[in-house]
Predict the structure.
Amino acid sequence: MSDQNIIELLRAQKNEKAFYLLYKGFPVIRKMILANGGRKEDAEDMYQDALIILCKKVSDPSFTLTSSLATYLYSICRFLWKDELKKKNRLTQFKAEPGDDGVDLSEEAEKESKLKQAEEALKSLGGKCLELLKMFYYEFQPMKQIAVSLGFSSEKIAKNQKYKCIERAKANLLSMQTGKI
Amino acid sequence: MRTELELIEHIENYLLGKLSPADKTAFEKEILADPKLKKEVDMQRDLMEGIKRSGMTQDAQNAYKKYKLNKNFKNWGLGGLSALIIATSVYLLAPSLSHHSSRELDYTLPETNERGEKLWADADKYLPYQRFSIDNSKDTILESRSGIVFVIPANCFKDKNGNSGGDVSFEVKEALNPSDMMLAGLSTRSGDKQLETGGMFYINATKGGENLSIDPNNGIYTEVPTNNYKPGMQLYHGERTPDGGIDWIDPKPMEKFLVPVNITSLNFYPPNYLDSLHRWGYDVKDKKFTDSLYYSFASLFGAPPTGKEHASVQPNSDSIEEKFSPDTAKYTPNGRALYTTNCRSCHYLDSRMSSGPGFAGISKRHSMEWAVGFTKNNIAYAKYDKEAADAIKLTPNTMTVFEGTLTPEEIYSIVRFIYNEPGETEVYHPESDISVHGINPAKVKAIWNEQFNNTLLATKEFEERMPFIHQTCQEEILDLYVNNLDKRLSYIDSMAGNMENLQNDKFREFALRGDGRVKTDSKTLKILKRYYETRSKLYTDAIAKTAQKFWKEQGEMDQKYMDKNAEHINKDAVRNLDNFNKEFNLNLKEAYRQLGYDTIAPIPSNVFGGTVTQTGWSNVDKAVLESTTNRSTLNYTDPVTNKKAIITYSPLTVKMNDMASFDRVMIYLSQHELSSFMRMNYSNESGGFKENLNELVSYDLVCVALKKDQWYMYSQPNVKPGMINEVPLERIGESDLKKKLNSFAPKSQSKDMQQDLDFMKYQFKDEKRQQKNLERQELYNKTLPVVLPCMGLAH
C-alpha cells in the first residue's frame, strides 16, 4: 500500500484502516524510543499520538508531504519524545540525530496536550454519554438515528441528554484546570 | 430546558456554524465583552475537539490490536525487552517501509558453514540470507526484517589471527513465525524435550570470505521482539544433525539489562502516599512539600529520649521539650501526665460525660485562654464571665479550684495537651512499648538523589519493587538492595524472597523475571555503601532536631499567646469594673440630686454585681445598682417624698452589612463623662451591635475594622440612641489611625483603645499561626498511618 493510498484513506476518514497499515513502521520507532530512555509503553503512546497528529496534518488540504510517510512519522515521534523527556527533565537520555531540528511541532503538541486533558474530562462521563457524544461529534450521525441506537424515547430527550453530558464534562474540565478534585 | 442547557445549545450551534450571520456576529460581540462566556465557549470547543480526538484514539487502538494479532506469531517470547545504551557512536540500519516486498532473497549457500564444515541443515537451505555490511571498529545496532535487534559492539569479531575491526559482512537468517519454522524443517526440540520457542535465528560474520568468531567477553546483545514476556526463557545453541535438522542444546539464561534513568524522576514514596495527599486536596506536584512531609517522619526514628517518658508519636510540644531539653534539671511540666493525675477522674478526652463533660471538640466550644482561667478558679470566673457561668451549670457537681494546687505553667501544659489530643481512643499510652516499626524515610532520602544515578536503584524496575519494600516494613529488605548494587536484581529479589517478611511471594515473583544489573564499578559501590549508611543517620538526626526546634518555638509562641490573652482578659475585666464603678457613681449622684438629697452617702467602692451592704438610702442605691448593671432606665419613686429619679437608657444599634468581609470588627463608645471607653457587643437578635446609652453621658462612636493588614475606620462624635444602618468605613493607615484615636479622648483613654486594637491585630495573626499548626498536626496524624503502616503493631 503506497503512501498515496494511505493519505487517501486518511482524507476519507477511514482512520482505522490507515492506522493499521501505518503500524508496520512501529518496530523502528519502538527501537528508537527504547534506545533513547523509554519503555515499551512510551513507544506505544508516542506512536499513537504521532498517528493522530499525522492524521490531522494530512487532513489539511494545504499540507504537502515532502518525504515518505514513514520518515515523517519518525520525525514526529522524535519531536514528541524529545518534548516528553524535556517535561520529565530527562533530556540527557535523548541522543541527537541529524534532522532533529528540522521539525517543529510545538504548536501541535501543545494543542494535543490541551485536548488530551479534554479527553480525560470526557472519560469520567461514563459509557452512554461518551457514545452519544462520539456518535454526534465524530461520526456525524443525525440525532434521530442516535436516539434510536441508544434507546432514547425521543429525539428531543436525546438532544437534552447530550447537553447534560456536555455540562458535566465542562464541570469536570473546569475542576481539572483549577486543580481541585 | 434549563437556561444553562440552552446556553450550551447556543454555543454548540455557534461552534458548528449553524447560526445566522447576524446571530453569529451578535454572539461574538457578547463573547468579547464577557470573559466568563468566552471561557464557556473555549471549554466547549476544547471538549468538541476532545471528543473527536478520543474517536481517533479509539481508531488507533483498534488498529494496533489488529496489527499485533496479525503480526507474525508473537505470542511466545524470549526475554530482552530493553535496549542497551551504547556509549560510542551508533549505526542504525532499519528496513524501510516501502522497500519491504522488493528485496531480493538470497538463498545461495557457500561451500562450508560457519565452522568450516560441509554440513548444512534444512533450515540453512530454506531460509533466505539477510546481509548487512558493517564497520566493526564502531558499535552497531541493526534490525532484521522480522525485528530482531542485534547490538554489535566494536571489535567483537576476531579473525583467525585475533585481529578485529574493519568492514565485516554480517549475515542473518531468521524464523520467527510458524510457517517459516515449518518451511525450514525447524523443530522445537531439545533432545527429547519439547521447547516453547520465541523464535530462532542464525548469524554469521565474514571478512573477505573468511569466517570470523565472536569474542566471548564481548558478545552481541540480541533482542527478539515479543508481545508477551515469559519468564524463564533461555537461549539455546543449535547443533546441526546429519538428518538435516537442528538440535537445540546448551541453554543459557538470558539477562535483561536494566536501563538506568534519572533517579529523581522515580517514585519511591510509600504506596498510597501521593494518592492520599491528592485526595485531601494537596498539590502532589509540589515535590518540596511532598518530600518535606514524608521525611519529617524520620524524626520518629531518632535517638531514644533521655527522660523517663517514652516518645509519644506526635511532635507534642510537651514531650519534645522534655525529650530534648538541654537542661534536664529544669522542670518542664508534662501536660499528659498532669491531666491523667488531676483531670482524668472527671473528664474523658472523648465525648463521654463523666463527673464533668468530655473534652472532645473543646476547641470549638471554648478558647484555650478561657480554659486556663476556668481551670484556675471556675467559681470566681463564673461570677463575671457568662461563658463560665453556663459551663458551671452543665453538671450539679462542683469542680475543683486548682489555683494554688497547680502552677500556671502546669495548667497551661494541661490545656495545651487537651487541645492537641484527638480523643481518648487515639491517645498513645506512654506506658506501652511502641517500637518504631517501618522503613525510615531518612534511608529513602539517602538513596533518592543523584549520587545513586547509574545504579540499579535508578531503574524503573527497582521503582516497581519499592512499594512492596515499604509494605514489608522491614528496613533490612531495603538494605539488601542498597548493599548489593553489583548483583543482578533477580538475585537480590530471591534473597528478599527467602527472608521472612510480609511480601515473600511478591519478591519471589519478581525474581522470576530475571532482571539483570546496571554496571557499576566496585570502587563506586564501596563509596555508595558508606554514603548510604552515614547519610541515613545524619538525616535522621537533622530531621529530629529540626522538628524539635520548630515545636519548641511554637510552644513558646503558644505560651506567649496565652499570657497575652490572660493579660487582655484582665485588662478587660479591670476596665469593665472601672466603667461600672464610674457609671454607678454618676447615676447615683444624679439620682440623689433628683430626689433632693444634698448629702451623698459614702459611695461603695468595688461593687461588682454583688450585694449591697449599705444601709440608709439603700433602696435608691439598689435601684441604681440594678439599673446600672442592666443598663436599663431608672424610674424610682421615693416612697416618702414621692419624688422621682429618672435616668433613661436608650438603645443604640449599629448595623454593618458587609461585616463578614472583614477579619475583625470592633465598635467602641468613648464615654466623655466617664473618661473611658466601652466596647459594643454584637447581638444576634438585633443583627448588629447594640448598647444602651445613658442619657447622662455623651458618647463618641468609633468603628475600627481589620482586613488582612489594612485598617478601616469610621467615627461619629456625639452619637445619639437610635439605629445606625450602615457604617461607611474608610481605609486608614496604622499611624493615622493612632493619631485619630488620640484626638478623641484624653490620652489615657486613647492609649487604652490603641492597646486594645494592637492586641486585636496580634490575636488575629496568632490565631492564624495556631490554625496552621493545627492543620500541620492534623496532616501529620493523617499521613502517619499511610507512611508507616506497621506502627503500633507488635514486632
User: Anything to note?
Assistant: Chain A has a mean pLDDT of 85. The longest helix of chain A spans residues 155-177.
